[in-house]
Amino acid sequence: MDVKEIIAKGDLVYEKTKVLTDKEMHYCPGCTHGTVHKAIAEVIEEMGIQEKTIGISPVGCSVFAYEYLHIDWQQAAHGRAPALATATKRLMPEKYVFTYQGDGDIASIGCAEAIHACNRGENILMIFINNGIYGMTGGQMAPTTLDGMKTATSPTGRTVEQNGYTLDLTKMIAPLPGVCYVARHSADTAAATRKLKRALKKGFENSMKNKGTSFVEVISTCNSGWKMSPVAANEWMRENMFPVFPLGTIKDE
Amino acid sequence: MSDVKLLKGNEVIAEAAIRCGCDGYFGYPITPQSEVMETLMERAPWNTTGMVVLQAESEVAAINMVYGGACCGKKVMTSSSSPGVSLKQEGISYLCGAELPCLIVNVQRGGPGLGTIQPSQADYFQTVKGGGHGDYKLIVLAPNSVQEMNDFVDLGFELSFKYRVPAMILSDGMIGQMMEKVTLSPKKPRRTEEEIIKEDGDWATTGKTADREQNVITSLALKAEEQEATNLRLQAKYKEIQENEVRYETYKADDAEYLLVAFGSCSRICSKTVDTAREDGIKLGMIRPITLFPFPTKQIKEFAKQVKGFMTVEMNAGQMVEDVRLAVNGEKPVEFYGRFGGIIPSPEEIRVALEKQLFNK
Ligand SMILES: Cc1ncc(C[n+]2csc(CCOP(=O)(O)OP(=O)(O)O)c2C)c(N)n1
Ligand code: SF4
Ligand SMILES: [Mg+2]
Fold first, then answer.
1. ipTM of the complex
2. In the CATH hierarchy, which fold is given to the domain comprising A21-252?
């Protein structure tokens, strides 16, 4: 039975956005990727830009983002999404172009592409899913892994001596004059996700105003990689990641 | 205004790109091909045709910009020289896996490593045998004149779009740097958004309109059967290309008893060797593969019935010679003479090599 047969049209208060496909997501239960996908899809629907939006998916757990958001997609090599987005936006300036990248993708292997796209002030929205770990490859250390955190490649905990410091890419990017908007959010509560959606909307809007790059980081969980239950992972994130990566709008010009 | 000009090979790549309706060029400076982007920046085509020209932060970024542009159904290109082309290999593999059209120009210099800025043909293996990962082929055009630098830009795009296989112009520092008279191609407009949607809208990421399914450009297939299907489709295309797109040229080969095989700048030098040998009554000829993939295997095999032996001349340690040997399949001797490290062989030393390795054997 279709939901519409149960709920009369006038009584319907919430519906899944049509920008999300009906495919079953492959993400682990509790993973932040799914929530952020939905937030992006809703923003695209609310802005009415489905026909004009091109997404660039990364290499990482969200490589299959194209399975879930019903828009045109380009699947980039590991870390190269900002280069694809650069060309796409310059060649089709009337399109809304966004990248979606994990921390390994954007802050490690693709650091150069990310910084230079931002420094050129490409009129794109960059979405950065920071879960502090390489989810897809089985939980290895990322540049964003917190000091002391145990991962598959830092089994006794990350140390400064061995690995240097936790990288705050967003903080590095914020001072660049090419960047007009930098914000850091989470998606662990309905209220947080609403704030995230406002930031995403702003980023999409900026990309049509010739103002430069918008950069939105989402502090996220990878409960599988962290080896925690979804609830425990969210608590751990709030306790340990928020102090290192404080939420809020960092730049808005 | 006459369209006959005296230009450097590298400059002509830029002129030809603008004229053929190229949508975007993305590059990173490296000798001996920097004039390509320099000429484009000077000509500022964004003011005339609307072509985008961008200096990327690296060759890695440049080839991935090409990937992004190609996803949109745009005519996009990059150029570089050997060390830079090595960096592009990941992107090239992705372009092949995602079946995207584009044009890549390699103005080769000597290697390995940082090597020399002098001309070389040492990237034959990398280009023809697949320098990146996975089973793939590029359509490879080897110009031997500034005129062909012009002609192969348009041809490269045409073939690349026809098969949705990236095309590579495999040139070298000699062709890139030398000045020759060239007849520039007539100007073609860039494709409009509507034309792209009409011609390539079934795959290009032009925005998912209500009247069609989403277009996704990806080279990912987690299921083995899906990946094999992609590989089989690619192999079928390569077979079709092998059957239909072989281009080569012969020089005084009709009655030849000995045949030189050379591509690109080496073929220019070898034609001199042929001329002087003919003056001495030696029936020497030449075959010049113009497409390195598809390789003129059949044609070379045919010559094996006619000639007493072959010699390939290359500015490398012997790369194309392997393909010539495969074509000849042991029927006649196939010798090799090469200089490398940026040294260009002279017609005379090729003659000496012929005497020693072929004529007096
Ligand atoms: C060139 C290259 N190197 C390594 C890999 C393997 N790899 C796949 S995903 C990944 C890390 C992904 O981590 P992240 O970007 O944080 O995404 P997440 O899965 O955590 O969302 C790596 C190293 C690859 N696919 N390509
Ligand atoms: S491994 Fe981590 S990032 Fe990947 S789907 Fe599972 S929870 Fe999400
Ligand atoms: Mg991660």
1. 0.96
2. Rossmann fold (3.40.50)
